[in-house]
Amino acid sequence: MTDREPGQPRLAVIGAGPAGLAAAIAAAARGVRVTLLDSAAEAGGQFYRQPAAELRARRPQALHHEWRTWERLRDGLDAHVRAGAVRHLTDHHVWLVERRADGRFTVHALLGPEQEDPAEVCADAVLLATGGYEKVLPFPGWTLPGVITAGGAQAMLKGTLATAGRRAVVAGTGPLLLPVATGLASAGVEVAALVESAGPRAFAGRARALAAQPGKVAEGARYGARLLRHRVRLLARHTVVEAHGADRLEAVTVAALDGAGRVRPGTGRRIPCDTLAVGHGMLPHTDLAETLGCRLDGHAVHVDDEQRTDVPGVWAAGEATGIGGAALSLAEGHIAGRSAAARLRGARPEPAEWAAAARTRTRLRAFFAALDSVYAPPAHWAEQVTDDTVVCRCEEVTGGAIRAAVAELGAGDARTVKLLTRAGMGWCQGRVCGPGVAGLAGCELTPSRRPFARPVPLGVLAAAGEDD
Q1: Residue 1 above 50 pLDDT?
Q2: Are 317 and 335 spatial neighbours (Cβ–Cβ below 8 Å)?
Q3: CA atoms within 13 A on the CB side of 363
Q4: Which Pfam family, giving just one, matches this sequence (predicted)?
Q5: Which one in 56, 173, 194, 266 has a CA-CA gap of 20 to 30 Å to 359?
Q6: Which of 380, 348, 178 lies closest to 279 in space, CA to CA?
């Protein structure tokens, strides 16, 4: 399937989460024809994930906060779709954005759950709203059935109204743990503990930045009140040391951390549970930006005040430009959509028109920069990874093999470890194990530039770019 119709300026927005929705609506409202591509069957992304219609959820809003914001986005998108200003393509898994010789772009995607049939969309400009993905660090037992990511537990609850078990521990670090723990508890799961590696003292040094966002502080306080109401025990400055079980998870051992981020001897306690929801923050999805040659700042896509990348015709917004939550994604998406619409129509953007969104962006970026410095994984987490712990699940590479690659074979970076051990060569291409491999190797986690954002059938690859 191809899309090569002439006419109005055309913008391809990749990702239908908060940033992509805000961008698509802003651009469509200003005379640009928008094609919104997303891998999910419904708009909303992870943050606004909805239960399947067949489940007939009576109160889906109970699974969300900011529900009215979602309703405005949903209704705005529907109105533009009905008017023909936006075409929303669901179940489109984008594997490459190709910059053509004429300066336009071809977006290559795979259709449906099987991801075998190709589709192409042509556009004058591209806006990347590809979101982020979870960072999970390895520990003994983390491959047991019943150990899932915190975001996975949340997605299961929002999308299927199901929970992974009856008694859960939520662990790791980061603000995502709060809604996951409260969501599970509200759904009837006994949450035995919320295990957070950050401690109260870390917040004291960031009081000014945090106080600048009283709404976010109040949101955190509401989550705290819900935890108390459900009698969820908070274990601050603690970490999961090991998950136990034969065929599936039966219990976890958690222990206290000292000031240097090491496990304090003699503090371990065993907590029976059948579910462990664990996460250590998030990383931006930058695969498509990297294949286009966009500059990165650390792990995030670099953008200017208009959310433009350094590649002409390419904008980026949301978690791809730095992890910061839905409100920041909405502000960045709105700015990016307005900027792209103006420039595609040959006009000079007027930043004064999005001044309120820009102020929100500035405040929230400062707020989440402060949170990032608080919610950091324990400095010495790698010391708990035993040599027989599987770190790369796809290729079954253990912690011992990674350490041997460094100590005995001289590997000094993650790429060399990958070449020597195959860690990161599997289906996920290192997205799951990358942080763990880098941490065990004692090197920096650097973006891996891949030619494609996801595996592609050879037949699709061979036929890419051909006319129907």
Answers
A1: no
A2: yes
A3: 16
A4: Pyr_redox_2
A5: 173
A6: 178
Q: Is 33:8 a contact under the CB 8 Å cutoff?
A: yes
CA atoms of 72 and 195, how far apart (whole Å) = 35
Residue 83 tokens, joined: 């008017």
- Confidence (pTM): 0.93
Task: Catalogue all structural domains in the chain, each as residue range(s) with its CATH number.
Answer: 10-133+283-349 (3.50.50.60), 136-280 (3.50.50.60), 385-441 (1.10.10.1100)
| Percent of the chain with pLDDT strictly greater than 70 | 98
Q: Which of 214-218, 230-234, 441-445 has the lowest mean pLDDT?
A: 214-218
